[in-house]
Specification:
single chain, alpha/beta
Length: 364
Protein backbone atom coordinates (compact mmCIF):
# COMPACT_ATOMS: atom_id res chain seq x y z
CA UNK A 1 0.00 0.00 0.00
CA UNK A 2 1.59 3.30 -1.05
CA UNK A 3 1.46 6.52 0.93
CA UNK A 4 1.29 10.12 -0.13
CA UNK A 5 5.02 10.57 0.64
CA UNK A 6 5.89 7.57 -1.55
CA UNK A 7 4.22 9.35 -4.43
CA UNK A 8 5.51 12.84 -3.46
CA UNK A 9 9.32 12.99 -3.15
CA UNK A 10 9.19 16.69 -2.34
CA UNK A 11 6.97 16.08 0.68
CA UNK A 12 9.27 13.29 1.87
CA UNK A 13 12.34 15.50 1.50
CA UNK A 14 10.59 18.26 3.41
CA UNK A 15 9.74 15.84 6.21
CA UNK A 16 13.33 14.61 6.42
CA UNK A 17 14.68 18.18 6.41
CA UNK A 18 12.34 19.11 9.25
CA UNK A 19 13.48 16.08 11.24
CA UNK A 20 17.15 16.99 10.66
CA UNK A 21 16.55 20.59 11.69
CA UNK A 22 14.77 19.48 14.85
CA UNK A 23 17.57 17.03 15.62
CA UNK A 24 20.27 19.68 15.05
CA UNK A 25 18.41 22.18 17.23
CA UNK A 26 18.10 19.58 19.98
CA UNK A 27 21.83 18.81 19.83
CA UNK A 28 22.71 22.49 19.95
CA UNK A 29 20.36 22.97 22.87
CA UNK A 30 22.05 20.16 24.79
CA UNK A 31 25.50 21.52 23.89
CA UNK A 32 24.50 24.97 25.14
CA UNK A 33 23.20 23.55 28.42
CA UNK A 34 26.36 21.48 28.92
CA UNK A 35 28.62 24.39 27.98
CA UNK A 36 26.74 26.71 30.33
CA UNK A 37 26.91 24.22 33.18
CA UNK A 38 30.63 23.65 32.66
CA UNK A 39 31.19 27.41 32.51
CA UNK A 40 29.23 27.88 35.74
CA UNK A 41 31.25 25.23 37.55
CA UNK A 42 34.49 26.65 36.18
CA UNK A 43 33.41 30.18 37.10
CA UNK A 44 32.61 29.12 40.64
CA UNK A 45 36.20 27.86 41.02
CA UNK A 46 37.99 30.98 39.91
CA UNK A 47 35.32 33.19 41.50
CA UNK A 48 36.30 31.66 44.80
CA UNK A 49 40.00 32.35 44.16
CA UNK A 50 39.51 36.01 43.19
CA UNK A 51 36.70 36.90 45.60
CA UNK A 52 39.25 38.35 48.01
CA UNK A 53 40.33 40.89 45.35
CA UNK A 54 36.99 42.71 45.38
CA UNK A 55 37.53 46.36 46.31
CA UNK A 56 41.33 45.90 46.42
CA UNK A 57 44.00 47.88 44.59
CA UNK A 58 46.16 46.04 42.02
CA UNK A 59 49.67 47.41 42.42
CA UNK A 60 52.15 44.54 41.96
CA UNK A 61 52.18 40.76 41.58
CA UNK A 62 53.62 40.07 45.02
CA UNK A 63 50.43 41.37 46.67
CA UNK A 64 48.59 38.35 45.25
CA UNK A 65 48.44 34.96 46.91
CA UNK A 66 49.26 32.01 44.67
CA UNK A 67 45.56 31.14 44.51
CA UNK A 68 44.62 34.71 43.58
CA UNK A 69 47.20 34.74 40.80
CA UNK A 70 45.96 31.40 39.50
CA UNK A 71 42.37 32.65 39.75
CA UNK A 72 43.07 35.77 37.70
CA UNK A 73 44.73 33.67 35.01
CA UNK A 74 41.80 31.23 34.96
CA UNK A 75 39.40 34.14 34.65
CA UNK A 76 41.48 35.59 31.81
CA UNK A 77 41.27 32.32 29.87
CA UNK A 78 37.54 32.21 30.56
CA UNK A 79 37.01 35.72 29.18
CA UNK A 80 38.96 34.83 26.05
CA UNK A 81 36.69 31.82 25.52
CA UNK A 82 33.50 33.79 26.15
CA UNK A 83 34.24 37.02 24.29
CA UNK A 84 36.18 35.61 21.34
CA UNK A 85 32.87 35.43 19.44
CA UNK A 86 31.74 39.04 19.44
CA UNK A 87 28.08 39.96 19.57
CA UNK A 88 25.34 41.78 21.52
CA UNK A 89 24.26 38.56 23.26
CA UNK A 90 27.44 38.37 25.36
CA UNK A 91 27.27 39.09 29.12
CA UNK A 92 27.91 42.67 30.27
CA UNK A 93 28.87 42.29 33.95
CA UNK A 94 30.30 45.82 34.20
CA UNK A 95 27.26 47.56 32.75
CA UNK A 96 26.88 50.91 34.52
CA UNK A 97 30.52 51.01 35.64
CA UNK A 98 33.19 53.41 34.40
CA UNK A 99 36.95 53.81 34.75
CA UNK A 100 39.35 56.77 34.57
CA UNK A 101 42.56 55.92 32.73
CA UNK A 102 45.37 58.30 33.72
CA UNK A 103 48.31 58.19 31.30
CA UNK A 104 51.48 60.08 32.19
CA UNK A 105 53.27 57.79 29.70
CA UNK A 106 51.85 56.84 26.30
CA UNK A 107 51.12 53.23 25.37
CA UNK A 108 49.38 51.49 22.48
CA UNK A 109 48.63 48.15 24.13
CA UNK A 110 47.60 49.46 27.54
CA UNK A 111 45.12 51.98 26.18
CA UNK A 112 43.59 49.82 23.44
CA UNK A 113 43.39 46.65 25.54
CA UNK A 114 41.82 48.42 28.51
CA UNK A 115 39.30 50.52 26.58
CA UNK A 116 38.26 47.56 24.44
CA UNK A 117 38.11 45.17 27.38
CA UNK A 118 35.99 47.56 29.43
CA UNK A 119 33.60 47.97 26.48
CA UNK A 120 33.28 44.20 26.03
CA UNK A 121 32.31 43.91 29.70
CA UNK A 122 29.69 46.61 29.25
CA UNK A 123 31.50 49.47 31.01
CA UNK A 124 33.02 52.75 29.86
CA UNK A 125 36.69 53.79 29.99
CA UNK A 126 37.69 57.46 29.95
CA UNK A 127 41.20 58.35 28.73
CA UNK A 128 43.00 61.16 30.58
CA UNK A 129 46.30 62.07 28.95
CA UNK A 130 48.92 64.60 30.10
CA UNK A 131 46.97 67.46 28.48
CA UNK A 132 43.81 66.42 30.35
CA UNK A 133 45.22 65.90 33.80
CA UNK A 134 48.54 66.73 35.45
CA UNK A 135 48.89 64.65 38.57
CA UNK A 136 50.02 66.68 41.53
CA UNK A 137 50.53 69.86 39.46
CA UNK A 138 47.27 71.76 38.98
CA UNK A 139 45.56 69.65 41.62
CA UNK A 140 46.95 67.56 44.44
CA UNK A 141 47.09 63.79 44.10
CA UNK A 142 44.76 63.48 47.07
CA UNK A 143 42.14 65.78 45.54
CA UNK A 144 42.39 64.05 42.15
CA UNK A 145 41.84 60.66 43.76
CA UNK A 146 38.86 61.87 45.79
CA UNK A 147 37.20 63.61 42.83
CA UNK A 148 37.64 60.72 40.37
CA UNK A 149 36.34 58.29 42.99
CA UNK A 150 33.00 60.12 42.88
CA UNK A 151 32.70 59.61 39.12
CA UNK A 152 34.30 56.25 38.47
CA UNK A 153 34.26 52.67 39.71
CA UNK A 154 38.00 52.12 39.03
CA UNK A 155 41.02 54.36 38.51
CA UNK A 156 43.80 53.04 36.27
CA UNK A 157 47.10 54.92 36.22
CA UNK A 158 50.18 54.59 34.01
CA UNK A 159 52.75 56.79 35.71
CA UNK A 160 56.43 57.68 35.87
CA UNK A 161 57.14 57.27 39.57
CA UNK A 162 55.70 54.43 41.62
CA UNK A 163 55.05 56.88 44.46
CA UNK A 164 52.40 58.56 42.29
CA UNK A 165 50.24 55.46 41.93
CA UNK A 166 50.81 54.62 45.60
CA UNK A 167 49.54 58.06 46.61
CA UNK A 168 46.53 57.73 44.31
CA UNK A 169 45.68 54.41 45.93
CA UNK A 170 46.11 55.88 49.40
CA UNK A 171 43.34 58.43 48.88
CA UNK A 172 41.10 56.77 46.27
CA UNK A 173 37.71 55.51 47.42
CA UNK A 174 37.62 52.98 44.57
CA UNK A 175 40.06 50.29 43.39
CA UNK A 176 43.22 51.50 41.63
CA UNK A 177 45.10 49.58 38.92
CA UNK A 178 48.81 50.18 38.42
CA UNK A 179 49.09 50.06 34.63
CA UNK A 180 52.85 50.74 34.87
CA UNK A 181 55.23 52.57 37.14
CA UNK A 182 59.00 52.77 37.27
CA UNK A 183 59.01 49.82 39.70
CA UNK A 184 56.18 47.55 38.60
CA UNK A 185 54.19 46.38 35.58
CA UNK A 186 51.85 43.68 36.96
CA UNK A 187 49.40 43.68 34.03
CA UNK A 188 52.22 42.70 31.68
CA UNK A 189 53.15 39.74 33.85
CA UNK A 190 49.59 38.41 33.80
CA UNK A 191 49.65 38.55 29.99
CA UNK A 192 53.05 36.81 29.90
CA UNK A 193 51.97 34.00 32.21
CA UNK A 194 48.75 33.52 30.25
CA UNK A 195 50.75 33.18 27.03
CA UNK A 196 53.00 30.57 28.65
CA UNK A 197 49.94 28.60 29.82
CA UNK A 198 48.54 28.73 26.29
CA UNK A 199 51.76 27.13 25.01
CA UNK A 200 52.77 24.79 27.84
CA UNK A 201 49.50 24.12 29.69
CA UNK A 202 48.10 25.43 32.94
CA UNK A 203 50.83 23.93 35.15
CA UNK A 204 54.08 25.82 34.60
CA UNK A 205 55.89 24.33 37.59
CA UNK A 206 59.45 23.24 36.82
CA UNK A 207 59.89 25.53 33.82
CA UNK A 208 62.75 28.03 33.75
CA UNK A 209 62.39 31.67 32.69
CA UNK A 210 65.51 33.49 31.48
CA UNK A 211 65.59 37.29 31.44
CA UNK A 212 68.20 38.94 29.20
CA UNK A 213 68.51 42.73 29.38
CA UNK A 214 67.74 45.63 31.68
CA UNK A 215 66.66 44.82 35.24
CA UNK A 216 63.56 46.98 35.00
CA UNK A 217 59.91 47.14 36.09
CA UNK A 218 58.83 44.41 33.66
CA UNK A 219 61.40 42.02 35.11
CA UNK A 220 60.33 42.87 38.67
CA UNK A 221 56.80 41.52 38.32
CA UNK A 222 57.76 38.76 35.92
CA UNK A 223 60.21 37.25 38.37
CA UNK A 224 57.71 37.62 41.22
CA UNK A 225 54.97 35.95 39.17
CA UNK A 226 57.24 33.24 37.79
CA UNK A 227 58.33 31.95 41.19
CA UNK A 228 54.72 32.02 42.40
CA UNK A 229 53.86 29.75 39.47
CA UNK A 230 56.66 27.35 40.44
CA UNK A 231 59.19 28.41 37.81
CA UNK A 232 62.92 28.98 38.22
CA UNK A 233 64.30 32.36 37.14
CA UNK A 234 67.65 33.14 35.51
CA UNK A 235 68.57 36.84 35.21
CA UNK A 236 71.29 38.27 32.96
CA UNK A 237 71.92 42.02 33.16
CA UNK A 238 75.00 44.14 32.50
CA UNK A 239 76.77 45.39 35.61
CA UNK A 240 74.90 48.39 36.96
CA UNK A 241 71.56 47.34 35.45
CA UNK A 242 70.51 44.78 38.05
CA UNK A 243 66.90 44.62 39.28
CA UNK A 244 65.84 46.58 42.35
CA UNK A 245 67.59 45.00 45.34
CA UNK A 246 64.52 45.04 47.59
CA UNK A 247 62.29 43.42 44.98
CA UNK A 248 64.99 40.85 44.17
CA UNK A 249 65.25 39.99 47.87
CA UNK A 250 61.47 39.59 48.04
CA UNK A 251 61.59 37.33 44.98
CA UNK A 252 64.28 35.14 46.55
CA UNK A 253 62.12 34.73 49.65
CA UNK A 254 59.13 33.74 47.50
CA UNK A 255 61.35 31.38 45.48
CA UNK A 256 62.38 29.59 48.66
CA UNK A 257 58.76 29.33 49.78
CA UNK A 258 57.78 27.84 46.41
CA UNK A 259 60.75 25.49 46.10
CA UNK A 260 62.35 27.12 43.07
CA UNK A 261 65.63 28.92 42.37
CA UNK A 262 66.88 32.36 41.31
CA UNK A 263 70.17 32.82 39.48
CA UNK A 264 71.83 36.11 38.47
CA UNK A 265 74.68 36.65 36.03
CA UNK A 266 76.16 39.19 33.64
CA UNK A 267 76.52 36.61 30.86
CA UNK A 268 73.47 36.20 28.62
CA UNK A 269 74.40 32.69 27.49
CA UNK A 270 74.68 31.45 31.08
CA UNK A 271 71.16 32.67 31.86
CA UNK A 272 69.65 31.09 28.76
CA UNK A 273 71.17 27.62 29.26
CA UNK A 274 68.42 25.26 30.39
CA UNK A 275 65.68 27.88 29.90
CA UNK A 276 62.22 27.16 28.55
CA UNK A 277 61.34 30.84 28.20
CA UNK A 278 63.60 33.68 27.06
CA UNK A 279 62.44 37.23 27.73
CA UNK A 280 63.80 40.66 26.97
CA UNK A 281 62.54 44.23 26.87
CA UNK A 282 63.63 47.63 25.62
CA UNK A 283 67.13 48.68 26.62
CA UNK A 284 66.15 52.36 26.60
CA UNK A 285 62.86 53.19 28.30
CA UNK A 286 60.91 56.43 27.97
CA UNK A 287 62.83 59.18 29.72
CA UNK A 288 66.21 57.49 29.15
CA UNK A 289 66.77 58.67 25.58
CA UNK A 290 69.88 60.66 26.55
CA UNK A 291 71.51 57.41 27.68
CA UNK A 292 71.02 55.71 24.30
CA UNK A 293 74.65 55.59 23.15
CA UNK A 294 75.90 54.53 26.57
CA UNK A 295 73.33 51.77 26.88
CA UNK A 296 73.94 50.43 23.36
CA UNK A 297 77.58 49.92 24.31
CA UNK A 298 76.89 48.35 27.69
CA UNK A 299 74.20 46.00 26.37
CA UNK A 300 76.41 44.68 23.59
CA UNK A 301 76.05 40.88 23.48
CA UNK A 302 72.55 40.88 24.94
CA UNK A 303 70.58 40.66 21.71
CA UNK A 304 68.26 37.63 21.62
CA UNK A 305 69.10 35.98 18.31
CA UNK A 306 69.11 32.45 16.92
CA UNK A 307 72.50 31.67 18.43
CA UNK A 308 71.34 32.70 21.90
CA UNK A 309 67.99 30.90 21.58
CA UNK A 310 69.96 27.83 20.52
CA UNK A 311 71.42 27.67 24.04
CA UNK A 312 67.92 27.29 25.54
CA UNK A 313 65.99 24.03 25.86
CA UNK A 314 64.32 22.48 22.82
CA UNK A 315 60.89 24.06 22.38
CA UNK A 316 61.85 27.22 24.26
CA UNK A 317 59.69 30.28 23.59
CA UNK A 318 60.39 34.00 23.37
CA UNK A 319 58.53 36.90 25.02
CA UNK A 320 58.77 40.69 24.62
CA UNK A 321 56.25 43.20 25.95
CA UNK A 322 56.64 45.57 22.94
CA UNK A 323 57.47 47.88 21.38
CA UNK A 324 60.70 46.20 20.35
CA UNK A 325 63.84 47.44 18.66
CA UNK A 326 66.15 45.38 16.40
CA UNK A 327 69.09 45.65 18.78
CA UNK A 328 67.09 43.75 21.43
CA UNK A 329 65.93 40.80 19.32
CA UNK A 330 66.59 39.71 15.75
CA UNK A 331 63.78 39.42 13.20
CA UNK A 332 64.63 35.73 12.88
CA UNK A 333 63.59 35.15 16.50
CA UNK A 334 60.90 37.83 16.74
CA UNK A 335 58.85 36.39 13.86
CA UNK A 336 59.66 32.73 14.52
CA UNK A 337 57.34 29.95 15.72
CA UNK A 338 59.05 30.26 19.10
CA UNK A 339 57.84 33.83 19.50
CA UNK A 340 54.69 34.35 21.56
CA UNK A 341 54.74 38.14 21.34
CA UNK A 342 51.43 38.59 19.52
CA UNK A 343 49.35 36.26 21.73
CA UNK A 344 51.15 37.92 24.63
CA UNK A 345 50.01 41.34 23.39
CA UNK A 346 46.43 40.13 22.88
CA UNK A 347 46.40 38.75 26.40
CA UNK A 348 46.81 42.26 27.78
CA UNK A 349 43.07 42.65 27.13
CA UNK A 350 41.86 39.38 28.65
CA UNK A 351 43.97 39.86 31.76
CA UNK A 352 42.98 43.47 32.46
CA UNK A 353 39.35 42.40 32.00
CA UNK A 354 39.93 39.80 34.70
CA UNK A 355 41.44 42.35 37.07
CA UNK A 356 38.60 44.84 36.58
CA UNK A 357 35.87 42.22 37.01
CA UNK A 358 37.55 40.84 40.13
CA UNK A 359 37.98 44.29 41.69
CA UNK A 360 34.30 45.05 41.18
CA UNK A 361 33.15 41.62 42.32
CA UNK A 362 31.49 40.92 38.96
CA UNK A 363 32.88 37.48 38.25
CA UNK A 364 29.96 35.05 38.60
Amino acid sequence: MSTENDQNPSALKSQVDNMLRASTAAVKSVQTVVKTEVAKRFASTFAKNVKSLEGKHFMSIDQLSNDELAGLLDLSHHFKDVYAEKGPHLPKPLNGHSMSMIFQKRSTRTRVSTETGMALLGGHALFLGPSDIQLGVNESMKDTALVLSRFNSIILARVHGHKDVVELAEYAQVPVINALSDLHHPLQTLADLMALQQRFGKDLAGKTVAWVGDGNNVLHDLMLGSVKMGMNVHIATPTGYEPNAEILSKTKTLAEENGVSIMSTTVAEDAVKGADVVVTDTWVSMGQEEEYAKRMKEFDGYQVNSDLMGKANDGAVFLHCLPRHPEEVSDEVFYSDASLIFPEAENRMWTVMAVMAAQLGRVE
